[in-house]
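User: If you would, consider this record:
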Amino acid sequence: MKFGVSTRALALATLALTLAACSGRNADNGAKSTLVVQESSDIPTLDPGTSYDTGSGQIVENLYETLVTYKGNSLSELEPLLATKWEMSDGGKTYRFTLRDGVKFHSGNPFKCADAEYTFRRNLVTNTSQSGNWFLSESLLGTPQNANDDKSITWDKIANAVKCDGETLVFTLPKPDPAFLAKLAYSGQGIVDSAHAKKIGEWDGTEATWKAAVGKDLTDSPLSRDPSGTGAYRFASKDANTFRAVAFDGYWGDKPALKNVVLQKVDELAARQQAFLRGDADLIEAGTRANIEEQLKGKPDVAIVDNLPDISAFGIAMNENIQAKDRLGSGKLDGQGIPANFFSDPDVRRGFVASFDVPTYIKQVQGGMGQPRNFLLPDNFPGYNKDLAAPQFDLDAAKAAFQKAWGGQVWKNGFTVNATYRSGSVAAQTAMEILKKNIESLNPKFRVNIQPKQWSEILQGANKGRESMVMTGWSPDYADPDNFVSTFYSSQGYYHPRVGFTDPQIDTWINEARSTSDAQRRNQLYTQIAERAKDQAYYILMPSNPGIRPYRDNLQGFSADTYNPMLSFSNFGTGTLWKALSKS
């Protein structure tokens, strides 16, 4: 279906179905109790054990609940959710959680400690690369790897890492982890209904079957098709273009004002904007700041919340170990290509970094909003040192670096680099065009070929080290600097295949920072990492990008004061959960 033609019909048809389900309410009351959201993203999975994308995460966080959550709009304070309190002992290696009474799953089953035990053991056992369970495994087993890849992982280790003492949940860590509690607030650690899961064909939770469940693809699991959490909303239906949830009558907390939530997949930005302006959608994926300010701001019944905190980090990765011959051209420094280790020379990287015009990017893409960054860490996170200068756009410095690179061969012979960006991303395309223009202006023998690709294709190639250059970004799984620093800079990090570098000094500092709870020492270590990473020019750094969100002005509960960027994973996130919203 082409939504550019029939978005209104789809919205009205979906809303009619929703209203029909709301027996006893007239159309106006039904519309006021229904949230309609439009976005371009599909929804790969509803299984929290493997949700690791924004499309899935925005739903999982509303169907399921975690032991702890963020307090208000704080990134550093946590408060109980399915737990009521916790105690830490043994120098930070043991955590005991008292669990909430009187909670029911959507199936009607009561929430017990056995459900939490099952959830975390299942996450440790399956632990696929397409989930956030690698950082849970780091904390509880001492390894980020799939249990199948590490022969030291045994059932005893998994069972002893998380278990019930009566109705108290106990975690035992091999060493202290200052980020452990924040990791438990990640939506992918939402507690699943173990009885329901086993009944519909999920892992049975026993030692006898655990090895067969290791690394299992959960994307289209039975639990993804038939979820059961404790959240304020329960699953109603899902097809290729529409997801629907309804308020859970048995919810233990305050009852949500919105009875129905409808998410619609609408590919075209113009169609989403038109539906929004007509009132057929309450929230949409609205495009860039320029799109919002030109098409939506100041229009009737439209409200805007601006200057929201940016807790993502983006950079252009320069791969020092390219694993694809078809990305290398000639494979030589002869002007017609590059060798696989082209970016292993720091002067090549310095030349690329100095050629990127951050001020122009901020002006063209971000409407003048945002600041240059000195590190791939949000500047509102602990560990970011604002006193460290950001890399400068300086074509003279870029020229000097290129003249030194590879003993002068780069400048003499030239190069052809093939870079990719996500098809349809104006920001990524503009960044690559700025870089291409400036680098090619330095030497007629320099060529940067840029090519759009589907995001899934880029991910598949980049995660295997096949891309030469690619825009790489990260939104936090948990509010701790380690989630960014280890991801981007560690030789064991999630993005290591994309960049291919190993820096033993940075690895040493990262490992120390993740094993101490001394905040001052951690900040010192992160400054040292930032300084070295800047000197070595490991990434081309994108600036901060304050958020802007349009919404229909009858939608209540969405404001800068209530916005917590760790909540609502979608690209147009409200920074709160559906249960906190209402309509006037």
Residues 3-21 form the longest helix (19 residues). Confidence is low (pLDDT under 50) at residues 1-27. The CA atoms of residues 94 and 172 lie 5 Å apart. The chain has three domains: 3-42+240-309+547-583, 54-201, 313-541.
